[in-house]
Each structure stands twice: as C-alpha cells, then as structure tokens.
Amino acid sequence: MCLIIFHRGDTRLDDDRLYEAHMTNPDGFGIMFPFRGHRELFVFRGVHDFTVIRGFYNIAMQQNPDMVALHFRTASSGPIDPMLCHPFSLGEVSFMHNGNFPEFQGHRWFNDIQWFSHDVLQRLPEGFLMDGEVRDDLETYCRLSHSKMLFMDAERVYIVNEGAGEWIDGAWYSNGGIDNYLGYGYSGAYYYRAGDVRHPGGFPTPHLFGAKRRARWRRCAGCGGHFKKLATVGHCRNCSALVELRRHCI
Predict the structure, then answer these.
(1) Same domain for 198 and 157
(2) Among 153, 156, 158, which Cα is nearest to 40's?
(3) Claim to verify: residue 90 and residue 152 sit in the same structural domain
(4) Radius of gyration of the chain from Cα atoms?
C-alpha cells in the first residue's frame, strides 16, 4: 500500500506517528525537502531501521520544516530493495507514489512506478507540472487508478489526486490503509464501478458473465481486461485516460 506524508510550517510528526508509519510500511523509506536558502532538493531513500528514519526527519526539520515529504514503502510491486524506494528523480523534480498502476505491472525489469516513470513521466515536456492540461490528464489517470503522487522541487510541491488522501493536524496522508480501496486481489487493487470493472487476476473470459451479459462486455484494447461496452469506446476508463496522458509525451 505505501504511505506518503507531507507537511508544512509548524507541523511536526512525533516519534509515535513516525514509528507507526514505519511499522505498517516497513519495506523502505524516503524523504525529500529543499535546503533552506538553496535552489536544491535534498533526497534520501533506502531500507533502514527507525533510528535512521528519525534521524533524517530531525535533519529535515532543522533544515526546512516548511516543505517535508516522507514515503514509507510496502513492497506490493517488486522486492524489498533500496532501488525501489521512493522518491524517484526527474531531474530537478522528484516524486513519490502511493497506489498501483495496473497498466504498468508485469514488466521484466521494472515495477509499476519505475515503468510508468520511464514510459510516461520522463517523456513529458520539461516543466509539465506547470501545464494545466497535462496536470488534468495526470490527475484523471491517477484518480481512476486509485493512485496518489507527490512532486517536489526546490520551491514548490504538487499533490496529484490530493482528495483521495486526508489532511490531519496540518499533515497530508496519502491513505489510511486498505479500506481506501474498493477491493484487493492477488493481482493488486481492482475496482467495481459502473462502466469499468477490474477483476482479480486481471483478464477473465466473457463466459464468466453468462450468456445474457456477454454482449455487454468488451475486451480493452489497452490492458486486455474486460469492461462494460460504452458506445464505440475501445478502451476501459483507465486505458482511455492513459491514452490522453500519452498525447503529451515527446
């Protein structure tokens, strides 16, 4: 599941809150914040015990408490490995992710967020977070994928799908646990909603729906999953949103 925590200003996480975040997401840690007085972002990540996590958080609070983001990883996609810990770099911008990108799972060398970064984010124009159209398409794709992302550079932060998280005592939490998902299967998160249905295991055959329902389902041209037919659309909602996001890639 993972957890992102972001806060500004006078907010400070106590040791109990930090420890709880670490123990419920124990497979990796990352932190980023701008150096005070410098146009530079400090980034640290790895698989560490709580003493190291608390130490780097204290450094962040001494350097620049106005913008601090932390990531606590649960290894739901890929093994426990320092290379899979967040944040990831896009040059002057770094980002953290919480959730699953179903269309980017199953790669031989990458987990879903690495593949998404390589195939989409790194191909978006420089400064894409300042482009309202790109941001809107990224918001739509993350919302449909039940994902949250946090981007930060030396001056600003941008939270994608912020409404799916929660602000508590001045800090933003990307999720509170598995209850934020509508379902969970052995292939990851799946979703039941009108017009777009994901199934555990990914690709059920239409005969599972029965003869009367079979005509109402179509196989997505993008991910291969099945969804209810919507006019002449050939993609499920997730893949349609991804097609729109890819329009901006160069």
Answers:
(1) no
(2) 153
(3) yes
(4) 19
Number of H helices, E strands in the chain: 6, 16
Peptide bond into 87 cis (omega under 30): yes
What is the average per-residue pLDDT within 20-46?
A: 90
Give the count of domains, the chain.
2
Q: How far apart are the first and last CA of the chain?
A: 31
Local structure of 105: helix, strand or coil: coil
Cα dist from 241 to 16, 118, 125, whole Å: 39, 18, 18
pTM reported for the whole predicted model: 0.82
95 and 192 in a single domain? The answer is: no
pLDDT digits (tens, 9 = 90+) for 204-250: 444 445 555 556 666 677 776 655 555 456 777 788 899 999 999 99
The pLDDT, as a whole number, for residue 190 is 36
Q: Which domain holds residue 161?
A: 3-99+146-175
Are residues 124 and 249 in contact, defined by beta-carbon separation less than 8 angstroms?
A: yes
Which amino acid, residue 231? A
Are 93 and 188 members of one domain?
no
Please check whether residue 139 lies inside any domain of the structure.
no
89 phi and psi, to 5 degrees?
Answer: -100, 140
On whether both 158 and 231 belong to a single domain, the answer is no
List the one residue out of 21, 24, 1 whose CA is nearest residue 147: 1
Helix (H) or strand (E) holding 70: strand 68-72
